[in-house]
Amino acid sequence: MTRHIIRKEFSDLVRDGRFRWCSLLVGALLLVSLGHGWVQARQAQQERAAAQATARDHWESQGEKNPHSAAHYGVYVFKPRLALSFVDEGVDPYTGTSVWLEAHRQNDFLLRPAQDATAAQRIGALTAAQVLQHLVPLLIILLTFGALAGERENGTLRQLLATGVGRRELAWGKALGISGALALLLVPAAAVGAAALVVGSPGPAASPFARGTVLAVVYLGYFGAFLALSLAVSAWARSGRTALVVLLAVWVVNGLVAPRVAVDLSKWLHPTPSAFEFARTVEREMATGVEDILPPDRAASTERLLREYGVESVDELPVNDVGVYLQESEEFGNRIFDRNYGALWDAFERQGAVHEALAVIAPLLAVRTLSMALAGTDVEQHRHFATAAEEYRRDVMRRMNGDMAANSPSGDFSYTAGRELWEATPPLSYAAPTLGWVLGNRALSLLVLGGWLVGTILAAAARVRRAEVG
Amino acid sequence: MQIPESPNGRAPLLEARGLSKRYGSTQALDSLDLAIEPGEVYCLLGPNGAGKTTTINLFLGFAAPTAGRALIAGLDVSTHDRETKERIAYIPEQVMLYRNLSGLENLEYFTALGGKGSPGRERLAEILVEAGLERDAVDRRVSGYSKGMRQKIGIAISIAKEADALLLDEPTSGLDPKASNEFSGLIERLRKRDVAVLMATHDLFRAKETGTRVGIMRYGRLVTEMSTDEIGHADLERIYLEHMHD
Fold first, then answer.
1. Is A166 part of the contact surface with chain B (CB cutoff 8 Å)?
2. How far apart are CA A411 and CA B84, in angstroms?
3. A84, A243, A267, B98: least CB-packed within 10 angstroms?
4. Residue A444 contacts residue A357 (beta carbons within 8 Å)
5. CA B70 to chain CA centroid, nearest Å
6. Which residues are registered as beta bridge partners of B32?
7. Is residue B3 part of a domain?
8. ipTM over 0.95
């Protein structure tokens, strides 16, 4: 019996001009945004790979110079666009794509696409994630609000129930029929997404297909929750109009109000300094030290070396005391950076936790967090790369200062190294986080989204069972 | 509680035993006893609020009785929802159909939900014609159907379902005399097939023409009932009006 309801619901929807136009529009937007995102991500990744090669070439061909000068010369590293970033660009446009690694300083990321975007681009930018998170739920609402309320209003519910069909069978059949109609829209989009990964992944990622599969499951869960919620409201509402108004209010709260509230509340609970304040704090602490982190004393450092090697003067030292001192300065700076950047990242993480917790009132917050995480474009994965870049910077500095300390015992800066040292310094080798790491970080969002799905299904079952005939 | 005698001694298909329904302080139906056998058309007459639709809703299981039982083929509606509904068909005042589907597709859908299996598209198309629908209207979307055409689909649903009993709630209200007469003809054909019919109506003329028995309700009570063979149109009108005055 359910299959008859599914078939009727499906053909009824497919013949409905409103469905055809809405789904055509949403489907077109989804495909265009996927295609555009893929082209853009691929192009960006190619540009970054080329820029990274150029930066490496500059490093290796910088000529003969003192290693510490080479450390100041520095090197740029570019954050790769991960394979699924074409679906959801997440915070990438705001976090920057490149960082200059130099001595004594942990620099901020540069080249934020959002800074370069024109006002028109900001308004018109539409990603596949936005279509999936905002427009598909709206389409689900438009398809479902009348599922039971409309039948009741039209008088067909009495006739249907008089045939002996149960309310639960009816609701289940309708849910599957609507899902079938939605599949006409979503299956081609999923196929295009999978094909994009097969034809040419925009960038690296650990197990992109596994990530893509989980991403698809997450979005299906989100759509399932919206479908069940819409059915529950449709079963409860006296008229289709009431159901539509209630569901549109839910959509507005979910898509517009809750994200704004989450941003403001998380900033209020866990404030972060402005970029200017942050830079000033780091600068001040670098100059004077803070608490038990004090800047190294050049004289004390030299004194310690003399004692350590049992010699009377720096000329007798087997190492360059300046090189040693410079590395100590690096390590002091590292502690200051770790303290400040660590606090900043932790604040961002706590803000993210507020977003995840607030998903109990708006499933969008959970699905957005999961979508960015699986696409590799969330704050945590930016931090993952930033940490890798910083570790690499420290390794490069250690190598430069170490070479200077070991090979220029005379203590002056006339010592130079060449291409051999630059080439011996390996390029940054970055491995994107695994799927397990990503999901482990986002367990709360998974739990909340699962809760939404189960909760809305139970609500729909309860409301459908008590649905009035009219 | 008095169980009404079956005029021909046949087991009733539709039966109310002390059936009552109260909505808050309103007694919508008060101890209704009724038995309708195969081949009988029982017309319930009465003003708005008399309890006619409540009676039909109780037989459909859309409301639970406060007291008493509604039985279909001897089965209690409240405990045998599925089994009882397989035996009946229901035609409301306005048969509402799915605008985007054709008459045939609507019939296919409602028949399939009836649970007895579909007799096939060709047979269903024949049933539509048998119910009085023009052949060229069968495959047209029902968005362009008149009320009379939609009521015919309702009859077609009951024929296709091979229902033993028919519950009609003001089925001819708003139909023009010709369509109303055609509808009565269809009911008569179903009666001859031993279908038991319970029809709630305001239309005294149609009740006399179509019904085999008539019951008059007021304030939720069945105040009188009679065989239509025993009275003329004028008698029915007189009796009805007598009962409508305190």
1. yes
2. 103
3. A267
4. yes
5. 15
6. B19
7. no
8. no
Contact B60 A158 (CB under 8 A): yes
Choose the mutation target among A1, A3, A7, A8 for the interface with B, i.e. most B CBs under 10 Å: A8
Decide if B111 is inside a domain: no
Minimal CA separation from B48 to chain A, in Å: 17
Tell me if chain B has a CB within 8 Å of the CB of A156: yes
Write out pLDDT tens, residues A388-442.
Answer: 999 999 899 889 988 888 887 655 678 888 899 999 999 988 888 889 999 999 9
Domain, as residue range, for B194: 14-96+163-244
Q: What CATH code is carried by the domain that includes residue B204?
A: 3.40.50.300
Q: Is A162–B85 a contact, with Cβ atoms under 8 angstroms apart?
A: yes
Across the A:B interface, residue pairs with CB atoms under 8 Å apart total 64
More confident: A116 or B22:
B22
Within a domain: B144? no
Q: What average pLDDT does range A314-341 have in this prediction?
A: 85
User: Could you tell me if residue B109 is inside a domain?
Assistant: no
Contacts of B98 in chain A (CB under 8 A): 8, 12, 156
What span, in angstroms and rounded, lies between the C-alpha atoms of A118 and A121?
A: 5
Return the pLDDT at B197. Answer: 93
CA A290 to chain centre: 33
State the total domains in chain B: 1
Does B174 contact chain A (CB < 8 Å)?
A: no
> Model's pTM, two decimal places?
0.84
**What single letter denotes the amino acid at residue A178?**
I
Write out the two tokens for A58: 């500059």
